[in-house]
Specification:
Number of domains: 1
CATH architecture: 3-Layer(aba) Sandwich
Strand content: 15-25%
Structural class: alpha/beta
Order of helices and strands: HEHEHHEHEE
Length: 151
């Protein structure tokens, strides 16, 4: 009985709210990046939403904004879409179909975080997102980190 109480107390100290967290997937932090030479110095979540939904297509400088996504099935894209757009990537299919008919292209999709970093490095108007530990400091810089949160 004494051992069981000790184990229970230990588990309560280790696990948040006494719940098992090993079975729950962690919610990743997301680094919003631009190229090291980019004139873009700051961005807000509201601006990201407008850029990624293509409601804002120009930067304040007048240059065409180029938002870059990861593939729709990438877990980081899912997390980004939920946090910034308030929807899952698949929930936007009708939205993009309607905009496409009006001549508006969805954000560019690149397959990996490395590709995102390489692209924003050479395209000064591009903005993307990657895992914070995948930021290539030689080619891109972090404008904003979206902290982990529950969905």
């Amino acid at each position: 009985m004494r051992v069981q109480r000790a184990v229970a107390a230990l588990l309560l100290c280790i696990l948040p709210n006494g719940q098992a967290s090993a079975s729950e997937p962690s919610k990743p932090a997301i680094a919003v990046v631009v190229g090291v030479e980019s004139p873009i110095r700051q961005v807000t979540v509201d601006t990201l939403r407008e850029l990624y939904l293509r409601r804002q297509r120009l930067w304040a400088t007048g240059e065409r904004a180029i938002p870059v996504n990861l593939p729709a099935d990438d877990p980081l894209r899912t997390a980004f879409s939920k946090r910034v757009l308030g929807r899952l990537p698949g929930d936007l299919e009708g939205y993009w179909l309607r905009l496409y008919r009006e001549g508006v292209q969805p954000p560019l999709v690149l397959n990996t975080s490395q590709a995102v970093c390489a692209y924003v490095a050479v395209e000064s108007a591009a903005i993307g997102y990657v895992h914070p530990d995948e930021v290539d400091a030689k080619s891109c810089r972090v404008l904003l980190v979206l902290s982990p949160q529950a969905d």
